[in-house]
UniProtKB/TrEMBL annotation:
The keyword Transferase applies. One of its GO terms (molecular function) is RNA methyltransferase activity. GO terms for biological process: RNA methylation. PANTHER family: NOP2 YEAST -RELATED NOL1/NOP2/FMU SUN DOMAIN-CONTAINING, RIBOSOMAL RNA SMALL SUBUNIT METHYLTRANSFERASE B-RELATED. The active site is at residue 389. InterPro entries: MeTrfase_RsmB-F_NOP2_cat, MeTrfase_RsmB-F_NOP2_dom, RCMT, RsmB-like_ferredoxin, SAM-dependent_MTases_sf. Belongs to the class I-like SAM-binding methyltransferase superfamily. RsmB/NOP family. It comes from Corallococcus terminator. This is RsmB/NOP family class I SAM-dependent RNA methyltransferase. S-adenosyl-L-methionine binds at residues 286, 336. Coiled coil: none annotated. PROSITE patterns: SAM_MT_RSMB_NOP (PS51686).
Amino acid sequence: MSRAQHERARPNPNRPLREDLVLQACLEAYGGVRREGRLSDRALEFVLRRKTLLYSTERRAVAERVYALLRRQRTVDFLLEHSQHNFETLDGTRQDVMRLAASRILHGEDPNYVSRTSGLSGTDLTVLDRLPDAAAELDALPDAKRFPIAASLPDFLAEKFRAVFGKDASRAAEAMNERAPLNARVNALKGDRDVLQARLAAEDVESTKPTPLSPLGITLETRLNIFSLQNFKDGWLEIQDEGSQLLGMLVDAPPTRVVDACAGAGGKTLQLAAQMKNRGDLHALDVDEGRMEDLRKRARRAGVHNVRTQIIPPEGPEAEAALAPLKGQADRVLVDAPCSGTGTFRRKPDARYRLTPESLEMHVARQKALLERFSTLVKPGGRLIYGTCSVLREENENVVEDFLSRHPEFTVRPVAEILGAELGKKVGPGPFMRLAPHLHGTDGFFGAVLVRAK
Ligand SMILES: C[S@@+](CC[C@H](N)C(=O)[O-])C[C@H]1O[C@@H](n2cnc3c(N)ncnc32)[C@H](O)[C@@H]1O
């Protein structure tokens, strides 16, 4: 790294932001999501990689502002459309300048400062003065109309949130619109989290505290780039939400034969390898070659060497043939199924706008098919663990119930029997794990443990 690059990467919270550069980068990244259909993290990465002149504080501001707007996109559009009658006919860049400014005000920034720092030549920002009236209009709407707009959810999803959370739907959606904490899991192959906390303190990480539910987790607050920490490079920690850690804990993997059927980039695979104390056979399967490659890199960093990765075809006789050697062989099979991601809106705020009733149906059909296929790998007496990062019943309880109706050889094992009564009660109620940000501070996760008769 050159001295100039090092200087730019060094966080200095007292240096004023160069607002014109920040705004330009925000417009490019937000435009990439809204108009070119890019995923938010990819759009930001794409833009920020080229903005080599931005300081780290400015990069952070760009990411925060774009995410904040994506979280509140429907609300912001309502407010602007009701503050300026011709808003919808303005050119895209002007609209986005106004959206970014309105979102900053909505998130508590001083309106005068926002107006002063948001103007691109020719953009009239007097619209911002009328936002409070539009907000009052929104508040006055009947609840059924107000909720989807205030929560920035598509109508069909707002309805589903009501079905799941009832009178807590607003609180649940609000919590999904907060920034997620930065959580990590200690690599138990290296040591415990007290030791990790001490090591991070020695590396100048400002604050770490234990996560309340997962005994493996810490929440970090730091302006440093996690990936440049020596502890990260040495495999002491993995970035992983606390809810995801709890789902991993449900597997309770013995050091024998375990299958992680939708292993992806290996968030849970590495946790399972640690549960297995690096012994036995851990089969990590996925259809995505790129993610499997990431998994292999992460496994090397974590010092994991009981994992075998296998790319499998997504369906059809080839998929069945690829799985044949594992049929009836596994003590544990984790199906961490692809899903709507409704539990992870805090981290992927744009995901909600891509979801449709049709795509949800597609997820459900695939979840049922995956559970069916991978259940055949469980040996008698073994366990099938089904999980999603969705809060919707369609993808969770209903998929499990559908499976059980066709498979009397499987029965539900209450999660409290795996996690212990105290923790089990916190992640319940009922036999399944059902996590949500407003209740647990985690991402939304579902987990079910099914046991195959001997
Ligand atoms: C929720 S993600 C898994 C996350 C991962 N377990 C972790 O903890 O990081 C779901 C994964 O399922 C994979 N997948 C999709 N269809 C599949 C199939 N037919 N067989 C196996 N994996 C599949 C996707 O590629 C994706 O990586």
